[in-house]
Write a structure and sequence with these properties.
2 domains; 11-stranded mixed β-sheet; alpha+beta; Jelly Rolls; Rossmann fold; single chain
Length: about 550
C-alpha cells in the first residue's frame, strides 16, 4: 500500500496486487485506487485480459491528461478517485498476474466477474454499490456480468462494446471477421512471449481459436457470451460509435431496444475508439449517471431525454441532439428501389436507387471474385476492393443528386433477390456519400482511418430470418442452419446494415455498393471468404423482384 498525491490535490490510496477470491478457490489479482480516509465510496470495476500492470502511453491528442496510472480502455483513477469513487482494476483469470486459464468472454469469466463485484461491495472502503464503466473488452463483459444479475451491481456503462460474440464480432452475417482471430493471436502472444509469461506460463492453453471457428453457426455454444436481454435489468447507459461497424456499434443500439432495464440511456458518438471516453464531455456523462445510481445524487440525469446522438454532417462535423426514443418516432421509413435496367453512358455494373419500383425485372451479373481462391492467411487482406466498383467487382447503385439535405439516422436494411453459379455467395454492402464533384465524403473511423457511412454483410446460405426478432428495418437472422443454393436458384435476401447517422447534403449522391468481398473502409475489420468466391453472382430487381434499400429519413423537428 502507498499514498499518492492525486488530481485536485486529493490523496489516493493505491493497493497493488490485492487478492480477489473466486468461489472455486482461484485467486485473481487486482489494483485498488481509492480515496484516503474512512469514507465508504462506490466502486468502478474493470476486469479483463489487458494486464493491469501493462503501461499505456495515451496519444498526445487525448483530452484527459496522461499519467502513469492510466491503463488501456479503463477509467483513469486520478480523475475518478477525487470525485468520490474507488477504481478497481482486475487481471482476469489466466491474464496478467492472475493464475488459471483465460477464456475470453466466456460464461466462466462472467461468473468470475459476479464474484469480483460482490467481493468489492463487501470491502470496508465500499458503500456496497458497484458500477462498471470501460471501453471495448471492459464494455463487452459488462453485458455478460449483467446476465448473472449480481445484487451489488447498480449501474453499467458499456462504452463501445459488442453484445453478441457470434453476430457482432465473430461472424458478420455468417462471414468470419478476421479482426477477432488476429486479436486472439495477439493476446496469446502477449501471454506466452511477453512479460506475463514469467508469472503465468501456459495460461492460454485453452484452444479458443478452435472453439470459435468450429462453432460457426449460432448453435448455443456462445450463450454465455451473448447478452440475455430479458435478464439485463440493471440501470444502463449504452454508448456506441457510428464508425464502429464491424465490432462496436450494433450491440449498443440492440441493448437500448431490447434490454429489460427500466432505466436506460443511449449515447451514439463518432470518431476514434478511445478519444470520446476521455473527453471532459464524455466523462461528465459517465459521472452524472454513476452519481445518480451509485451515490443517490438527484442530479436530474434520468429526467432528461434518454437518447443523445451525434448527428453527422460529413467530414467529421457533428451536432449533438437529444431524442426521446430509438429508433426515432418521426422516422420516415423510405424505400429506394434498385433499378438495374441498362442506361446509356452508364458505367459497367452501375445501377440506380430510385423512388418508384421499376415495372420490369432486370438483372446484373458480376464475378464472385477476380482474384481467385486463396488458402493463405493473406486471403482476407488481399481481397479488399478499392474506392470504386471496377468491372466484375460487384454493383454500385446510386441516387440522382439530392434536391435537399437528407438526414438518415437509425437502423437500415436492404432487401433484394440474388442467385449464384455456385452453392453460396457472400454479400458485402457499403453505404457511401459522394459530393457534387464525385468525391467521397469520409469520416474518421474507430481505428483512426477514413471510413464510409455504414456497412452490412450476409452469407446467403445464412439468410433464414428469425420471425420473432426481425423488424422491417432490422432483419435478424437465425444462423442455425445453412440453406445452400442450387446453381441459378433465385432467392430473396434481407441484409441488416448497421445503424448510422449522416446528413447527405443537397447535390450529394447516396450510393450503395453490393460486392463479393470487403470494400472501401474495411481495413480494420476484414473477412475471410473461404472458397465461396468463385463463379458469378446475379442480382435481380424490378417487377416481381422487388429490391430496395430501406433508409430511416428524419424530417426536421
Amino acid at each position: 500500500m502507498n499514498v499518492h498525491a492525486g488530481a485536485d490535490n486529493d490523496s489516493i490510496v493505491i493497493e497493488k496486487d490485492v487478492v480477489v477470491p473466486m468461489r472455486d478457490g482461484a485467486r485473481l489479482l487486482a489494483d485498488v485506487f481509492r480515496p484516503e480516509g474512512d469514507a465508504r465510496v462506490p466502486a468502478i470495476l474493470n476486469l479483463g485480459p489487458y494486464q493491469k500492470d501493462k503501461p499505456w502511453i495515451p496519444p498526445d491528442t487525448l483530452e484527459e491528461k496522461p499519467n502513469p496510472y492510466m491503463n488501456w480502455e479503463t477509467v483513469n483513477p486520478l480523475w475518478w478517485v477525487p470525485r468520490g469513487y474507488a477504481a478497481v482494476r482486475i487481471d482476469g483469470r489466466g491474464s496478467g498476474k492472475s493464475q488459471g486459464q483465460c477464456e475470453p468472454w466466456s460464461l466462466a469469466e462472467s461468473v468470475d466477474f459476479y464474484d469480483a463485484i460482490e467481493w468489492a461491495a463487501a470491502q470496508p472502503w465500499c458503500n456496497g454499490n458497484v458500477g462498471l464503466s470501460g471501453i471495448s473488452y471492459f464494455a463487452i463483459n459488462q453485458w455478460f456480468a449483467a446476465n448473472q444479475q449480481p445484487p451489488s451491481l447498480k449501474a453499467i456503462i458499456p462504452w463501445e462494446g459488442f453484445a453478441d460474440l457470434y453476430r457482432d464480432a465473430l461472424f458478420h452475417g455468417g462471414i468470419l471477421n478476421v479482426f477477432m482471430t488476429n486479436w486472439l493471436t495477439a493476446h496469446l502472444m502477449h501471454h506466452t512471449q511477453g512479460r506475463a509469461s514469467q508469472l503465468i506460463p501456459n495460461a492460454w492453453a485453452t484452444n479458443t481459436m478452435h472453439f470459435w471457428l468450429s462453432n460457426n453457426l449460432d448453435s448455443g455454444a456462445f450463450h454465455g457470451a451473448q447478452a440475455q436481454w430479458d435478464k439485463i435489468t440493471v440501470p444502463m447507459f449504452s454508448v456506441g460509435n457510428w464508425t464502429g461497424f464491424g465490432l462496436h456499434l450494433r450491440g449498443n443500439t440492440e441493448a437500448y431496444m431490447r434490454g429489460a432495464s427500466k432505466h436506460k440511456k443511449l449515447r451514439m458518438h463518432t470518431g476514434s475508439h478511445v478519444h470520446p471516453f476521455y473527453t471532459e464531455e464524455g466523462r461528465a456523462d459517465q459521472l452524472r449517471f454513476l452519481d445518480y445510481w451509485l451515490k443517490g445524487v438527484d442530479n436530474g440525469v434520468m429526467n432528461e431525454p434518454p437518447v443523445k446522438l451525434a448527428i453527422r454532417k460529413g467530414h467529421d462535423e457533428i451536432e449533438w441532439r437529444h431524442e426521446n426514443e430509438w429508433p426515432l418516432a418521426r422516422t420516415q421509413w423510405t424505400k429506394f428501389y434498385f433499378d438495374l435496367a441498362p442506361a446509356a453512358g452508364a458505367v459497367e455494373n452501375s445501377g440506380r436507387l430510385v423512388s418508384a419500383k421499376p415495372k420490369q425485372t432486370s438483372s446484373r451479373t458480376y464475378a464472385a471474385s477476380s482474384l481467385g481462391s486463396m488458402g493463405s492467411t493473406s486471403a482476407a487482406s488481399s481481397q479488399v476492393m478499392g474506392g470504386s466498383i471496377k468491372p466484375g467487382m460487384g454493383i454500385a447503385l446510386e441516387t440522382p443528386p439530392l434536391e435537399r439535405d437528407v438526414e438518415v439516422t437509425g437502423p437500415l436494411a436492404a432487401s433484394f433477390w440474388v442467385s449464384s453459379a455456385t452453392e453460396d455467395l457472400d454479400l458485402f454492402l457499403t453505404l457511401r456519400n459522394f459530393d457534387a464533384e464525385g468525391n467521397e465524403v469520409m469520416e474518421t473511423g474507430q481505428q483512426g482511418t477514413p471510413v464510409p457511412v455504414a456497412k452490412g454483410w450476409l452469407r446467403v446460405s445464412h439468410r433464414e430470418l428469425d420471425p420473432e426478432l426481425s423488424l422491417p428495418y432490422r432483419p435478424y437472422h437465425k444462423h442455425r442452419r445453412r440453406l445452400f443454393l442450387k446453381p441459378g436458384e433465385i432467392v430473396k435476401v434481407d441484409v441488416e446494415i448497421w445503424p448510422t447517422s449522416m446528413v447527405f447534403k443537397k447535390g450529394h449522391r447516396i450510393r450503395l455498393d453490393v460486392q463479393p468481398c470487403d470494400g472501401v473502409g474495411s481495413q480494420g475489420y476484414l473477412h475471410y471468404h473461404a472458397d465461396y468466391n468463385t463463379g458469378t453472382n446475379t442480382i435481380y430487381a424490378g417487377g416481381e423482384r422487388e429490391s430496395f434499400l430501406l433508409l430511416p429519413i428524419i424530417p426536421p423537428k
